[in-house]
Amino acid sequence: MTYRAPVRDIRFALEEIAAMDGLTATGGFPEFSSDLTPAILDEAAKLANDVLAPLNWAGDQSGCVLEGGAVTTPPGFKDAYAQFVEGGWQGLQFPADAGGMGLPKGLGCALMEMLQSSNMAFGLGPMLSFGAIEALIEVGTQDQRALYLPKLISGEWTATMNLTEPQAGSDVGALRTKAEPNPDGSWAITGQKIYITWGEHDCADNIVHLVLARTPDGAPGTKGISLFLVPKFLPDAAGEPDERNRVTAIGLEHKLGIHGSPTCTMEYDKATGWLLGEEFKGMAGMFIMMNSARLNVGVQGVGIAERAYQQALAFAKERKQGRAVNAEGPGPHAIIDHPDVRRMLAMMKAKTEAARAICFHAAVEADLALSHEDEEERAWSKRREDLLIPIAKAWSTDVGVEVASLGVQVHGGMGFVEETGAAQHYRDARITPIYEGTNGIQAIDLVGRKLARDGGHALRELIEDVRQTAEDCETSSNPELPFLAEWLNPAADALEAASNWMLQADDADRLAGATSYLKLAGDVAGGWLLCVGAVAAQRMLKDQVGEDAYARSKIALARVYAETVLSSAPGLLGDIKIGAEPLFAPGEIMLESA
Amino acid sequence: MTYRAPVRDIRFALEEIAAMDGLTATGGFPEFSSDLTPAILDEAAKLANDVLAPLNWAGDQSGCVLEGGAVTTPPGFKDAYAQFVEGGWQGLQFPADAGGMGLPKGLGCALMEMLQSSNMAFGLGPMLSFGAIEALIEVGTQDQRALYLPKLISGEWTATMNLTEPQAGSDVGALRTKAEPNPDGSWAITGQKIYITWGEHDCADNIVHLVLARTPDGAPGTKGISLFLVPKFLPDAAGEPDERNRVTAIGLEHKLGIHGSPTCTMEYDKATGWLLGEEFKGMAGMFIMMNSARLNVGVQGVGIAERAYQQALAFAKERKQGRAVNAEGPGPHAIIDHPDVRRMLAMMKAKTEAARAICFHAAVEADLALSHEDEEERAWSKRREDLLIPIAKAWSTDVGVEVASLGVQVHGGMGFVEETGAAQHYRDARITPIYEGTNGIQAIDLVGRKLARDGGHALRELIEDVRQTAEDCETSSNPELPFLAEWLNPAADALEAASNWMLQADDADRLAGATSYLKLAGDVAGGWLLCVGAVAAQRMLKDQVGEDAYARSKIALARVYAETVLSSAPGLLGDIKIGAEPLFAPGEIMLESA
Q1: Closest chain B CA to residue A169
Q2: Does residue A590 have a pLDDT over 80?
Q3: Are residues B340 and A440, on separate chains, in Cβ contact within 8 Å?
Q4: Distance of alpha carbon B463 from alpha carbon B560, whole angstroms
Q5: A589 and chain B: CB distance < 8 Å anywhere?
Q6: How confident is residue A536, by pLDDT bands cut at 50, 70 and 90?
């Protein structure tokens, strides 16, 4: 159950695929230079490999305990969190003038992947703080930023996101938590929030809850919602935790996975809070957190897939069963020598790297959208980021579940035994397609907003890039690369056809095919980026940069992906174009059992 | 978390799709008549709905306890088992002269589905006994049958299947358990077996272990293996449990799911056993059990999918969120009115019914293979049964996992909370692609034996049937049916092309594509059988038999399946034909993380 952060693969994805080094030219990240990347990644890897990974399985087994409103996290989490704070990791991607390291989100995602791979339950704490810090930077007042940012960016305090209520899940607008004005300008928050990740714990001195609530004048629905900042301990004049606020963890969920992450029911009983951003603009603040979280949940998918893959690979090399048809000697051979097992592992690896490439590409474009000196370039990057966010979230988390499930399968009977650890990944992974907007919600966002709002412009830009890469493969001096284009071009055609169909479809038809459309978009985007990697690898071979074997592995991986995933892309069109009628007209499909 | 056995759907699959009533003409089942079917199914449904289903979640939570070699099953299991025995259900499909009901395996599978849906952990006990009884009938001596069959068929005693050892999983031939002759003709069995389902429990008076072991003259590998019958209590002269045998449960696995099913490590310490079948022919006896178990594990896939579907459907009708685009009024609407959720439910239903149809078709052909008066017909049915077994096992269990995962997804955040119960199905389902031969082993069986041994004959017979059904759809008076043929024909073409490729491929290439080939075969077979159902439904509409709405639902379901699953069939060819070279030649794909 060991984990070793795949630093080389992460660098390859950041530098060769997502072209992170381009950020040095923008001037937006004065603290960043290319030669910093390996040092940062190696340090993060130490934390992940040596501190967090060893706590993962034990944390799953022990879980969290709630007693008298206080949550105790699993053994070792508190110390590990102290080391996380000590390293300054919470501030990695935040401006140096606010106490951060001022590094790009691309590197932030790389760190995030290692946190989630090594210990997803632990990694959720920092992940939620990341989002809250972004919201605070963007919509907080000067005073709020001065008071809260240093503590949050250092990691001394953590933060949470409070949206969901029992009757308000995907429909956030149905929330009932209310905020009433106090004479001193603060607000009294009253209501119950559920599924609050790291809502209460013993790792930090204070917890800053970002809470959606409705003010007395707030209209029904999302338009009347405001965002509030509600600290567990009210800061005193010096900014230190003082009076205990009237917010309490009253329940802990008994969950399928991520047992080490305390998922709390929070009770606000006239808790003191402060408006964060404008009244009635709560959704805007929430979307800042949400967009940060969506990308990072996609990265969780990558992280859990990587971990499951590493574990399955180690097992498959160790475990011997039977005679493998194309291995030497009489056997027994390691099961990795059996073609069916090898196929599973190759697909796990290919999909994991495709998901990583999509997430890192989105992150670097987010960095460029903020930092590029050219306005048109910023706009281009913003369009790409926005388009990719729902794909990065949904596709990568579906991959996380699929790869974790394959990981169990590679283990055979031992995969079903909890002690092996493969089962934990299968359990942990299952939340990722659900939270921060279910994958169905992501698909609706993709077809309803991201595709339709600009008449397919951003999507067509993506397809242009795919075709360019196909051309790069076709014209490559390496005879293996034109083969990739044979799969990439029809896949791009399918995505274009599906997009055109979506753009002319009515709402119900578009929504009926949304999830399958997102799958196609992810399949194509992932394949495209692996081919970008293959082109880069060929360049490395030609220029004699790095190890040949490593470069060749990236070309081989793109080929496996092309033959197993891109090959199926055109076949998804029927499913995408099903339309609502076959699902709704014959209402009898879903007759009650009788 | 209630469950209602889908008696109407089960009858439709048995009678309209698998044509079980044809068995009455064979004379092989004198106890069976068509009008018996509803009575049997209704009685079985009562046991499942009222006795077993309510114990399912509590059994998962409490699990089994091993103390001093004795296992205590979850509260209620012992009483429930007594009711199972009382109803004579263990004997349903066994000959009347051996104390059974003498009914077809088709009905046996229907019962099995209800047991597995209502309580998979419980259902595993009877399932293992089923297989052992079949082996005993086929290879037991007269005395062995006289001594053990009545107790096993009544259910007073249960039975187990002991194959796996730590070093011998998929590679059964690597086992080390030894059998040494005793002077009285019995054997002394010594060794350790793992993953023994219901290896020890408190529900029955005796447990009959069927154990694979090697005799002193046994060659290495599978050829030297023999099968032994090792009862927990040695029967006395009157056949009643007497002296305790030297077989002990020394461990219980801590598993991802089926917590209510005791999965034991069994220690045999010179335990007394008797040869079952001939020496060195242990694999033959094992395959009898295994084939029974493989079909029944496929039925488990159906059962868990049905349960997960029912639970998700009930939730989706109850849970209200947001405004659905094509529903009336301002909302909030039930989430089933949202196209994306409805698509998930429709796919769950369609795949569940397709898997059921495949399993029941295999079961009825197994009945015909034994009972048809015409030898050629028997041979045809045997070929079809053999061809379908690996598909029924692997495809249905993959569907079970997929549908259970969709069931969690439909529940949103509540799906990840254990109390909801959806997560249990996701955990329970995960073992089914692993045990009784992993799905990879099934795929190897399909391409290596079932397809290749007769040069594709049985597979071509299946494709002929698919084409015939497509023609039936094309020529139907119902204008909705020709549409189905538009999807069915290209899918059949794809299966034919893939089969032809497989038949000329070398071993390694065939094995590299085996799993994807099995998926295609299952996708096509499932779609074909739903179309058979649609043709039957059209006949019912025309003849005014039964409820119109019900018949129409079967046509609608076939359409959803055709558009979402059959539509992708041709796209699987690339994946199937990948060959071993891209997986093996660039050995660097699976470089260690660095």
Answers
A1: B321
A2: no
A3: yes
A4: 21
A5: yes
A6: very high
Question: Tell me, what's the ipTM?
Answer: 0.97
Taking Cα atoms as reference points, which of B405, B146, B371, B79 lies closest to residue A427? B405
A235-288 confidence digits (pLDDT tens): 999 999 999 999 999 999 999 999 999 999 999 999 999 999 999 999 999 989
Contact A535, A554 (CB under 8 A): no
Q: How far, in Å, CA of A29 to CA of A95, rounded?
A: 9
Look up residue A497 and give its amino acid.
Answer: A
Q: What pLDDT, on the 0 to 100 scale, is given for residue B326?
A: 86
Q: Is the dihedral of CA A390, A393, A395, A401 positive or negative?
A: negative
The per-residue DSSP string of A268-292 comes to: EEEEEEEE-SSTT-HHHHHHHHHHH
Structural tokens at position A551: 């470069």
Q: Does B281 touch chain A (CB under 8 A)?
A: no
Q: What pLDDT, on the 0 to 100 scale, is given for residue A588? A: 65
Following CA atoms B279, B284, B289, B292 in sequence, which dihedral angle do they give, to the nearest 10 degrees? -160
Q: Which of B167, B194, B412 sits opposite A438 (nearest CB)?
A: B412
Task: Report CB contact under 8 Å: B430, A435.
Answer: no
Delimit the domains of chain B by residue range. 7-150, 159-281, 446-584
Residue A210 near residue A232 (C-beta atoms within 8 A): no
Mean predicted confidence (pLDDT) in B153-167 = 96
pLDDT of A105 higher than 80: yes
Give the end-to-end CA distance of chain A in Å, rounded to a whole number.
Answer: 47
Angle at B40 between CA B34 and CA B44, to 5 degrees: 150
- Asked if B394 and B433 touch (Cβ cutoff 8 Å), the reply is yes
* Same fold flag, A7-153 and A159-281: no
Q: Which CATH class is domain B159-281?
A: mainly beta
Say whether A553 and B412 touch across the interface (CB within 8 A): no
Strand ranges for B202-295 from DSSP E: 206-214, 225-231, 233-235, 241-244, 247-252, 263-275
Q: At residue B446, what is the residue type?
A: L
**1.20.1740.10, 3.20.20.10, 3.40.50.150, 1.10.540.10: which CATH number matches A7-153?**
1.10.540.10
Q: What is residue A291's predicted lDDT score, i.e. its pLDDT?
A: 86
Q: Give the whole-angstrom CA distance, residue A372 versus residue A365.
A: 10
Percentage of chain B beyond pLDDT 70 is: 98
SS3 per residue for B139-173: HCCHHHHHHHHHHHHHCCEEEEEECCECCECCCHH
Considering only CA atoms, which of B310, B307, B262, B253 is closest in space to residue B124? B262
Cα separation, A291 vs B530, whole angstroms: 42
- Given a cut of 80, whether residue A589 has pLDDT beyond it is no
User: What region does A181 belong to: left with phi over 0, alpha with psi -120 to 50, or beta?
Assistant: beta
CATH superfamily placement of domain B7-150: Acyl-CoA dehydrogenase/oxidase, N-terminal domain (1.10.540.10)
